[in-house]
Amino acid sequence: MKKGNGFFAEFKKFITRGNVIDMAVGVIVGGAFTSIVTSLNKDILTPLLGLIGGTDFSHLMLVLGEGEEAPVLAYGNFITAVINFLITAFVIFLLIKTINGIADRFKKKEEPAAPTTKTCPYCKSSIAIDATRCPHCTSTLEE
């Protein structure tokens, strides 16, 4: 019984971590976003492209054989899916680019850390920045 409690406790810890919850929210929002892009492509872009090119991609198909049960290659649907993918990828690219730009504006600019060592001009050893005498060659250092 103790082993089961440990397993479920570990599972609960895994599920409640921020990364898992963020990923779940991303998947849900991504699914909703995909339906929006699919509708944009199917209901707006494909008819407009049909006006320009004279073809509606969704009806393009190739029948392989004869009869009612002949296999059909619906390559128009594939073209529509490729367009959906390209639109989705482009919009995600724009979102990420915008988010990164906003994050860069708010990111604190770190000043370079002050050096903690310097090089002895005589023996070229690395020594403490505030040293007045080199511990390696015992030379007196000038500031």
Task: Give the uncertain stretches in residue-range form.
Answer: none
Question: Main β-sheet: number of strands, strand sense, barrel status?
Answer: 2 strands, antiparallel
Radius of gyration, whole Å: 32 Å
Count of individual helical segments = 3
Number of domains: 2
**Overall pLDDT:** 80
Q: What pattern of helices and strands is seen along the backbone?
A: HHEEHEE
Beta strand %: 5-15%
What structural class do you assign from the helix and strand content? Answer: mainly alpha
The backbone outline, from C-alpha atoms, is elongated
Tell me the name of the CATH homologous superfamily of the largest domain: Large-conductance mechanosensitive channel, MscL, domain 1
Helix proportion of residues, in percent? Answer: 55-70%
In CATH terms, what is the fold-level topology of the largest domain?
Non-ribosomal Peptide Synthetase Peptidyl Carrier Protein, Chain A
Main sheet strand line-up: 1-2
Molecular structure report:
With 143 residues, the protein is mostly helical. The chain has two domains: 2-106, Large-conductance mechanosensitive channel, MscL, domain 1 (Non-ribosomal Peptide Synthetase Peptidyl Carrier Protein, Chain A); 114-143, no CATH class. It has helices at residues 2-16, 18-53, 75-106; strands spanning 62-63, 72-73, 117-119, 126-128. The protein starts with a helix and ends in a 15-residue tail after the last strand. 3% of the residues are buried. The mean pLDDT is 80.
